[in-house]
Design a protein that fits this description.
Blueprint (H helix, E strand, L loop, with lengths): L1 H18 L7 H15 L1 H8 L2 H6 L1 H6 L1 E3 H28 L7 H21 L1 E3 L1 H8 L1
Parallel strand pairs: 1-2
């Protein structure tokens, strides 16, 4: 099982690295997933990942102090919202195709409830820091 976590850790690390130059891919969530996978897969890889510049620049303040810049929060939230709305749309589409307009109503209600819940969580439980503070830390 540990090898699966290690493989997924490298996959998420790769996606996180691609997210740095590509605005479509969110860097921070993929790096968070990589950190979790490395922690579950190998202590050595976890220590290595925590010593990289990538970790220090994108995750360290969140992991240690539970704080993020507004840009990071919005990137995560808007990407997650887009994925949730896509799921909602696919559930709606499948219901229409099957001729059942009430099909999977519970799933659609759950998806619609998740959207405001994640915004409330991010803005009440995770401290927002100015971008300048984050930039000074990187120097």
């Amino acid at each position: 099982m540990k090898i699966i976590f290690i493989i997924f850790g490298f996959v998420f690390l790769g996606l996180g690295c691609l997210g740095i130059p590509l605005p479509v891919l969110p860097t921070t969530p993929f790096l968070m997933l990589a950190a979790i996978c490395f922690a579950k897969g190998s202590k050595r890889l976890e220590l290595w990942f925590k010593s990289t510049k990538l970790y220090h620049k994108h995750l360290e303040t969140f992991v240690e102090k539970r704080e993020m810049t507004l840009k990071t929060k919005l990137t995560i939230l808007l990407t997650a919202s887009a994925m949730l709305l896509f799921s909602f749309g696919m559930m709606q589409y499948k219901a229409i195709i099957n001729g059942n307009s009430a099909g999977n109503i519970i799933g659609r209600v759950v998806v619609l409830c998740l959207i405001p819940i994640k915004y409330i969580y991010f803005f009440t439980r995770i401290k927002t820091i100015p971008a300048e503070k984050e930039e000074k830390k990187d120097e």
